[in-house]
């Protein structure tokens, strides 16, 4: 336990950033502290004595290197639009009590970022930080500094559209007649940095999101570092965690370097009921280097790790309950026992990765729903297609084009069913034999 507590404490000092060397002038701003409290905030001063009511209300004030402290409460963004976009490097810390004197982000003082499902509300990522398009006065792109998101809970459940409002299956199309938005096809925390920008996502929970890519998605560019540590993703489509690269060069010294440690990623769904993509707990782009250590990666509809060409060192990771493989490298699928023998992009010093049965402390209500779902395969759908002998199809046949089939129901009755925060959090509060995330513990500065 002592080592686990020390691990969380040291997250306050993730990077040793030297602004003078690789940080441009715009991103060298000293920054200020902002305070946000749903329950006690008002106005836009954003001080500890007079906090703002929502992060969305002060986005236009933020400058590079500002530090934002979020108190307990449920946050919908400005105008309940359900998405916050920030275009400068900032540090966001959630889970404070009302006086900003204590932090307990997964317990007594949850900072919950969510939204509503109303027609024309935003469907972009709930927290979207993108700095790669900012420029200096000379027109050159800004670079350097650091981005941190720490201690935030993202719950997209209220933003999703569910079939017949039963919370059992999401729908990706809007319904203007009923004033319903599509379920957002975006992640919960999406960060795209600039060159030489270091990025950290720490102690966050992301659930009920329906992206094509990552529920937590971090894209690091040339010369930058990424840390993804002690996070919990549960019940998302796409990938639970997605380590991405913005560097396409050949200089190995400039490759983005990631450390991905002590995360738990469970119940990652395919993009949709018949999709052949998504459904992995952890995914990697090529052109990056990563250390993957002490993570629990379980119950991916497809698998545990999908590696598109990254150079990985894998130490003491737990794989459990994955549908088709534990590790996939390009098109090669492997069980955990075969990774060291068969993988091409794994450091030979990797060790301690294992598979075992675990008990997950998820609520019985949701577990029963998940266990009773019916899988739909693309082969079954294709076999069910019937060709219509319409005039249009006769013409298409004459032109040598494929004929068009009739409509086939492709939506499952149970797909990404809503799980509540209270139902989900117990599954992320304790690791299995040291593998996976743990309750964040902070010591007052």
Automatic annotation (TrEMBL):
Gene3D superfamilies cross-referenced by the UniProt entry: Single-stranded right-handed beta-helix, Pectin lyase-like (2.160.20.10)
Protein name: Right-handed parallel beta-helix repeat-containing protein
Species annotation: Aureibaculum algae
């Amino acid at each position: 336990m002592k080592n686990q507590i020390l691990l969380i404490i040291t997250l306050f000092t993730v990077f040793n950033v030297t602004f003078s060397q690789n940080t441009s002038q715009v991103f060298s701003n000293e920054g200020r502290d902002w305070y946000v409290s749903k329950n006690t905030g008002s106005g836009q001063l954003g001080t500890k004595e007079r906090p703002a009511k929502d992060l969305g209300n002060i986005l236009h004030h933020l400058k590079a290197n500002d530090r934002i402290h979020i108190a307990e409460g449920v946050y919908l963004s400005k105008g309940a639009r359900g998405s916050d976009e920030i275009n400068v490097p900032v540090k966001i810390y959630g889970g404070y009590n009302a006086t900003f004197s204590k932090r307990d982000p997964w317990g007594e003082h949850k900072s919950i970022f969510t939204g509503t499902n109303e027609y024309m509300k935003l469907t972009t990522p709930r927290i979207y930080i993108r700095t790669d398009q900012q420029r200096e006065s000379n027109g050159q792109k800004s670079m350097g500094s650091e981005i941190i998101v720490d201690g935030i809970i993202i719950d997209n459940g209220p933003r999703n559209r569910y079939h017949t409002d039963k919370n059992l299956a999401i729908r990706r199309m809007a319904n203007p007649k009923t004033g319903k938005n599509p379920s957002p096809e975006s992640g919960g925390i999406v960060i795209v940095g600039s060159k030489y920008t270091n990025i950290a996502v720490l102690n966050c929970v992301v659930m009920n999101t329906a992206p094509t890519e990552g529920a937590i998605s971090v894209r690091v560019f040339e010369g930058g570092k990424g840390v993804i540590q002690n996070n919990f993703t549960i019940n998302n489509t796409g990938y639970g965690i997605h380590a991405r690269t913005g560097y396409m060069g050949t200089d190995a010294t400039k490759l983005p370097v990631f450390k991905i440690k002590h995360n738990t990623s469970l119940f990652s769904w395919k993009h949709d009921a018949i999709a052949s993509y998504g459904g992995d707990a952890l995914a990697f782009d090529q052109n990056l280097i990563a250390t993957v250590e002490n993570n629990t990666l379980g119950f991916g509809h497809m698998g545990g790790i999908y590696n598109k060409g990254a150079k990985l060192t894998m130490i003491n990771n737990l794989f459990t309950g994955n549908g088709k493989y534990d590790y996939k490298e390009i098109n090669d699928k492997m069980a955990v026992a075969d990774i060291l023998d068969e993988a091409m992009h794994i450091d030979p010093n990797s060790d301690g990765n294992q598979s075992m049965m675990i008990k997950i402390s998820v609520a019985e209500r949701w577990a029963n729903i998940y266990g009773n779902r019916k899988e739909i395969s693309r082969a079954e759908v294709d076999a069910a297609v019937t060709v219509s002998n319409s005039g249009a199809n006769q013409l298409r046949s004459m032109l040598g084009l494929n004929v068009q089939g009739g409509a086939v129901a492709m939506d499952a009755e149970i797909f990404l069913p809503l799980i509540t925060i209270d139902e989900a959090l117990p599954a992320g509060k304790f690791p299995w034999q040291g593998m996976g995330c743990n309750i964040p513990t902070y010591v007052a500065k």
